[in-house]
Amino acid sequence: MEELGWLAISGRIVQQTLPVWVAMAIVFVLSIRFRRRLGLYGKLFDSNVGMVGFGIVLFWVLTAIFADLIITHDPLAQMRGMRNAVPGSRLANPADQYPYYLLGGDSLARDVFSRAIMGAREVLKIAPFAAMISFMIGISLGLPAGYFGGRLDTGLTFVANLVLAFPVILLFFLLVAPEIQATVIPTAMAGVLFLVPVLFVMVLLNARFFTQPMKRNLYVGAALLVGLWAYSGLAFNADPLGVWGMRANLLNVFVAVVFVNAPTVFRIVRGITMDIRTRDYVAAAQTRGEGPWYIMMWEILPNARGPLIVDFCLRIGYTTILLGTLGFFGLGVSPESPDWGSTINDGRRLLTVYPHPALVPALSLMSLVLGLNLLADGLREESLRD
Amino acid sequence: MLLFLARRVGVMLVTALCLTFVVFFLTNLPAKLETLAKTQAGSRMSDAEVASWLDRNGYNQPMLMRYGEWLGVVPGWTREEADGTVRGRCVERMGAEGYGARCGLAQGYWGQSTRFRAPVSEVIGTRLGATGWLMLWVLIVMVPMALIVGVLAGMREGSRTDRSLSTFAIASTATPEYVSGVLFIALLASSTVGLSPLLTSWGVIDGPVLFQGNARSALEGITFWNFTLPVLTIALYGMGYIARITRASMTEVMTQQYIRTARLKGVSFGNIVLKHALRNALIAPFTVIMLQIPWLLNGVVIVEVLFSYPGFGWTLYEAAVNNDIELLLAASVVAVIVVLLTQLISDVGYVFLNPRIRVT
Q1: What one-character DSSP code corresponds to residue B97?
Q2: Closest CA to A147 of A263, A304, A264
């Protein structure tokens, strides 16, 4: 049983992730070539921090996309004799399989490398969408709270503070459990939370196009159709075509993460709105006789985009950390799921003897979140510059 | 000021009431009660047995009634068994006079923990003490480190020190406790991998490991050896954020007119930073440090589970896993009070530190 040295392991990992490197090279060359025409995204390539962050994030996104090509073994398959194998171990009986466990085997003799790669897909399937839904909810509630003020503001702020006063971890323990999945609570919460994005898009389009009824009917109708289609599938698992759908435990996790994130976004949006409301262009729009929703959606929101984009990147990172926490406590994940949090949890029992099964997902998670934070930092710097 | 405080305390009470009811509701769902019955009285119970167990132990009343019992505003449940003995929520605690009496939060009774088989107040009290030590050391390590990093980075914006320290701060916020804890254990607390075997073979350390990866022994006596890793793990994650706020605040102060005046007068750079800038730059970090404390609770739970240190976080975890309703409720009350109190202190402290701001 010969083992590979670290140099050989690195070489083979680079070779295995070749599609990612090629795609990354293409994106970078094209982006740097045309960066003057790409707005804020193009400016990102003027700052080193932003570029490094974008590179790391892009690496993981592409890894998640090409995961099927990259993995060397089935992430759930167990090989005889490979329990806790050290990195670079040769399979006892490779047959027509990839002959090595590049980053070793875990306590159930599964390939650590393949599990970490598939874990990226698990995380990136949820985190950006959870952050997006949180943002839509935070924006749809924060804009009117900041713009109208008064009772509405007091009530919404109280509810937001209520959720924020809850220690996140306690909320997860209470909200993400098999017993809860059996009740209507996750579905009911999803029913409310997922409805907000649909309403958001409709109000957004209606406020813009209500002076041209033909166009308005077309756009709002199309948005409503697609929105309700996705809504029925995601919230109630009742999509007639079966395109949209979420398993019960995934829905539970999703709802919990959105619920935790939305109040923070609400507070940010509310604060920015209260600031922008006093600007001259808002007064101009009011004098023109624009409706409140037009002013909020098409005057205030576009001008608040800088801080919101930055926070969006940070929030994806934070959501990744939250998902890892859930996995670490074994909440809401299926038992053999290769997601990073539960892999770290599995690996920590033998941590002092065989550290590699826990270290690989730990470093992966850290690098993704670091990339997102660096990206946010670069964006902040570049958006402040003009 | 007094009016402001009174209103804040009022809002706090309403918030705490709402939150405990939510916790009560979620822990008393039928499915959860069934789990509780099975863990308490045997896992192979039939549905009828579960129902009768719940009925016998007073879980069958309407939820609002039982929430009232827990608060101590409604008399505790009582029940006459077939053999004539009287049982009840308060009877078990106070004997025969407990019949029809109220026993709950208002009377200072926190209930009985089903997981640890001891009064909740006792369990929470001792565990909070253990966590208090952990938090104390975390704050002692975290706050000065964060302030130093932030001030050093912020005093010369854009310099090389600023770049590297800012990157360090970002990296530390990107490393959640379960990642840094795992890294630390693998690197420093393992006798087969990492630094420890190297140091042992060089004769630098006596024991097999540099630091201990299990903090249970810290209950008897806190030593550098068994407490460093848990403290460092929590402090590292919380540090980055405070450092970044301090840096932002410091860079803003350094562009002020009075700093320029001081420079033009020929005051040395060290004196400017220490005497003119620092005090104004520390207002913003103060509030953030206060608001960071409830946030540390997350880290406390993770770290206490990871290093098996039986403190408050570990108790919360055990209570949640075993659906220990009254312990979980008490833990959430404590957590909520910590959150609300730190918010209050940060608001009041902000007013004292910054005379330009008035509370209304």
Answers
A1: G
A2: A304
Q: Which residue out of B8, B14, B17, B26 would a mutagenesis test of the A interface target, given it has the greatest number of A Cβ atoms within 10 Å?
A: B26
CB contact under 8 A, B179 and A344: yes
Q: What ipTM was assigned to the predicted interfaces of this complex?
A: 0.86
The verdict on B80 and B151 lying in the same domain is: no
Among B117, B132, B154, the domain boundary falls at: B117
State the total domains in chain A: 1
A268-300 burial: b if 16+ Cβ within 10 Å, else e: bbbebbeebbeeeebeebeeeebeebbbbbebb
Q: Is residue B157 part of a domain?
A: yes
Q: Which helix (H) or strand (E) holds A183?
A: none
**Residue B141 and residue B231 in contact, taking contact as beta carbons nearer than 8 Å:** yes
Residue A155 is assigned to a structural domain of this protein: yes
CA distance B180 to chain A (A): 8
What the block records as the tokens of B156 is 């010369």
Q: Which of A173, A323, A379 to probe by mutation at the B interface, max B CB count within 10 Å?
A: A173
Which of B117, B138, B170 corresponds to the end of one domain?
A: B117
Q: Does B234 touch chain A (CB under 8 A)?
A: no
- Contact criterion met (CB < 8 Å) for A373 and B316: no
Numbers of helices and strands, H then E, in chain B: 16, 4
The answer on B270 and B201 residing in a single domain is: yes
pLDDT lower than 50: segments of chain A: none
Same domain, B181 and B105: no
Flag whether A7 is in a domain: no
Angle at B170 between CA B167 and CA B171, to 5 degrees: 85
Pairwise CA distance, residues B331 & B218, whole Å: 22
CA-closest candidate to residue A369, choices B237, B233, B175, B165: B175
Q: Are residues B200 and B67 in the same domain?
A: no
In a domain, A281, yes or no: yes
Output the pTM of the full model: 0.89
| Residues spanned by the domain of A264 | 127-316
Q: Percent of chain B having pLDDT more than 90?
A: 16
Point out the residue among A162, A183, A352 whose CB comes nearest to the CB of B191.
A352
CATH code of B300's domain: 1.10.3720.10
Q: How close is the nearest chain A Cα to the Cα of B81, in Å?
A: 31
Q: How far is B276 from chain A (nearest CA, A)?
A: 27
What angle, 0 to 180 degrees and rounded to 10, lies between the N-to-C axes of helices B63-71 and B2-27? Answer: 130
**Residue A284 corresponds to which tokens in the numbers above?**
């101009």
Determine, for residues A348 and B182 on separate chains, whether the beta-carbon distance falls below 8 Å.
yes
**Partner A, chain B 175-204, Cβ-Cβ below 8 Å:** 175-176, 178-179, 182-183, 185-186, 189-194
CA B7 – CA B3 distance, rounded (Å): 6
The answer as to whether B93 is a domain residue is: yes
Two tokens at B60? 């069958």
**Could you tell me if B136 and B226 lie in one domain?**
yes
Q: Determine the pLDDT at residue A367.
A: 95
- Specify burial of residue A23 (Cβ count, 10 A radius: 0-12, 13-18, 19+): middle
Q: Are residues B32 and B143 in the same domain?
A: no
Residues of chain B contacting residue A365, judged by C-beta atoms under 8 Å apart: 176, 179
* Domain that residue B165 falls in: 120-353
Q: Inter-chain contact A169–B297, Cβ cutoff 8 Å?
A: yes
Confidence of residue B359 (pLDDT cuts 50, 70, 90): low
Lowest mean pLDDT among A250-254, B29-33, B79-83, B182-186: B79-83
* A203: closest CA of chain B, how far (Å): 32
Minimum distance, in Å, between the CA of residue B291 and any CA atom of chain A: 11
Q: Who contacts A195 (Cβ-Cβ below 8 Å, separation ≥6)?
A: A231, A235
**Judgement on whether residues B126 and B112 belong to the same structural domain of the protein:** no
